[in-house]
Amino acid sequence: MDKIVVEGGSRLVGKIPISGAKNAALPLLAAALLPTGTSTFKNVPLLQDVATMAKLLRKLGWDVEGTGTNALTIASPVSRKKLKLEAPYELVKTMRASVLVLGPLVARYGRARVSMPGGCAIGARPIDQHLKGLEAMGAKVTLEHGYVEVECKRLRGATIVLDMPTVTGCENLMMAAALAKGRTVIENAAREPEVEELALVLNKMGAKVQGGGTPIITIEGVDELSPIEHSIIPDRIEAGTFAVAAAMTRGDVLLEGARPEHMDAIVAKLRAAGVQVSAESGGLRVRGAGELKPIDIVTQPHPGFPTDMQAQFMVLACLAKGQSVLKEMIFENRFMHVPELGRMGADIQISGRAAVVRGGTKLTGASVMATDLRASASLVLAGLVAAGKTEVLRVYHLDRGYEAIEKKLRGCGAKIRRVKT
Length: 421
Ligand code: EPZ
Description:
Helices cover 31% and strands 24% of the residues. With 421 residues, it is α/β, with parallel strands linked by helices. The strands form six sheets. It has a four-stranded mixed sheet.
């Protein structure tokens, strides 16, 4: 298991290229199960989760070329003999987004068998909304031996009101509805840019999706879809993570390719903390000049403040003079970075869903580790400003969602390296 070693104290100055969005790439690769033929995706991020999804598509019988590059082609099986409509436990347990193959497979082949994703470090993360929606479309759902089996000769359109705007739940149901008979209306739909991107790509395939990115998505089912070529949108959470790094180190960084319109809540909170943010030459420029101000944050579904940026802003709050309160309203256990930051000198008290940060304490380097992707990223950020050396262990968490994070930071002056252990 590799580790990342950071020497604190460098200002970040320069440019960071933003990669394609992990949380767009994963549903789009699943959507490539829908058409017959070969689809091509460009600007694919080099991430462990993308490699896992490619492995899953191969297990199902699709040919996936280009793994390890930023372009992937996905070709449907030439004969049904190659089909294996099952997502096995050993893959699903490493990446819960595997559940995204459920909708496409049932819509196209009338059945699918997917290992229940089970919980993960940040919470129980059930898929009841995914299954409720498929049942509303006529599917028979059975749970046994840790697998969910979904069967339906031909899904039919339905009106589905989600209990909460689940991102992958909404994406699964959009893909299922694309080939269903009749009209599906998804109410209380997720509004994330990645959901809007999926709607756009489904329409490129010949689907009839309206309202992507709004709370009500309407899909008129069609009989078949065509393969496409598409370049994936930039990762707003990667961009947000590096924006916080620039702010914390009083740096001046251009996030190349970042889309400000996907990051309104993140930009608003950066500005509230006293950070200068401006849209410039095809990206976002972030300058951390003066003193950082405390900020209060409540994580919400998009367009609210994203839960995937909570850990990173907590580190920013540690540097601000005064008290900040961060409330995690989406997941029940997403404060695992707190004890690790505490070991670096942060003063953070958790009470229920709120973390109260008394900023202004000096952070010192330490050996730290976390058990989820964004918590690990926040420890790298802390290492950039902590006095001395910080070792972030279990780097495989980072590799799931950040392409070459140490190279990108080193390119702006950070003293950071990966050590193979
Ligand atoms: C997506 O996860 C993202 N992953 C997550 O990013 C992100 O944190 C999350 O959305 C929230 O924005 C991908 O897009 C691949 P949800 P998802 O379904 O879809 C509850 C990262 O770091 N819920 O929107 O799994 C659930 O427990 C990852 O990149 C149900 O109760 O999240 C949670 O409390 C982490 N029943 C809330 O809804 C369901 O059927 C939001 O979950 C589905 C969800």
